[in-house]
Design brief:
Strand content: 15-25%
Order of helices and strands: HHEEEEEEEHEHHHHHEE
Radius of gyration: 18 Å
Structural class: alpha/beta
Largest sheet: 8 strands, mixed
Number of strands: 10
CATH class: Alpha Beta
Bound molecules: zinc ion
Helix content: 25-40%
Distance between the termini: 30 Å
């Protein structure tokens, strides 16, 4: 059986499961989110993030017990120079372990280590988002939580781009797409609104940076909606406990089996 037919059959089987299953989604106020995370220990992928600071959209840092961090490189656009070790400074009085590792390969971290994973404005940069989410689920305990924040394209430089369909993410997953993938680059160069992304510079500067995406990871490889995020969680048997739609999407899911 070819990979294409295999993918198609798996897609059909998933879609059948999705629509024959009772989906219960509880919408909660973001102000209640802290109750889910208070005094718990977790891992943040691609942080720290202003969203979780005291004046952020979801001020979690002050309430959690401990937080480690994972970033893909010792030098990033967002965090500058960082190193492995006990230096993940996410709050004025708190720090955890800094891991330098691919978000989709946390092999340094055993199964079921954390109570939760946080990730803000990161998953859209991944060439293989399902591989990453599967890995994030692996490192949380049964009953643990994953909270994702992603940009709403209507409010950012992606507004001309189509939303990525879930079946595309599945194909990337089964094809084991790696983070050096540039198959979306032509579409991005065509549709990215540089007027809304002054940091990217001119078109030529943006193109040059994008061609080195493996080094800087600045590209938004895929474009998400809240329904695609829900599909991802359901695919991995996560219970969706919270969704929010504004300038950003927020989704929280609970791991209901080991
Ligand atoms: Zn893709």
């Amino acid at each position: 059986m070819t990979m294409g037919i295999l993918c198609l059959n798996r897609c059909r089987s998933f879609i059948k499961r999705l629509y024959t299953r009772k989906i219960r989604i509880k919408i909660t106020d973001l102000r209640d989110t802290q109750k889910l995370f208070s005094n718990k220990s977790g891992l943040e992928i691609g942080g720290p993030s202003k969203f979780f600071e005291n004046k952020g959209l979801i001020p979690l840092y002050r309430y959690i017990n401990k937080l480690d961090g994972c970033n893909f490189s010792t030098n990033t656009i967002w965090e500058g120079k960082i190193e492995n070790g006990n230096e993940y400074k996410y709050h004025k009085y708190k720090k955890g372990i800094q891991y330098i590792s691919e978000a989709s390969n946390l092999s340094l971290i055993p199964n079921s280590t954390y109570d939760f994973v946080l990730s803000c404005n990161c998953l859209e940069h991944m060439a293989n988002p399902l591989k990453a989410v599967k890995e994030w689920i692996r490192v949380i305990k049964t009953g643990g939580l994953i909270l994702l924040v992603l940009p709403n394209k209507d409010y950012c430089f992606d507004h001309n781009r189509p939303i990525t369909v879930f079946s595309h993410l599945l194909v990337d997953y089964f094809n084991e797409v790696e983070e050096n993938d540039l198959s979306h680059l032509n579409d991005i160069l065509l549709l990215h609104d540089l007027e809304m992304d002054k940091l990217a510079g001119t078109f030529e500067q943006f193109k040059a940076r994008s061609l080195k995406n493996y080094d800087n990871r600045a590209l938004h490889q895929h474009v998400f909606s809240i329904s695609v995020l829900i599909e991802i969680f359901i695919y991995f048997h996560m219970e969706v406990v919270q969704t929010y739609e504004g300038q950003h999407f927020v989704i929280t899911g609970k791991k209901i089996k080991g």
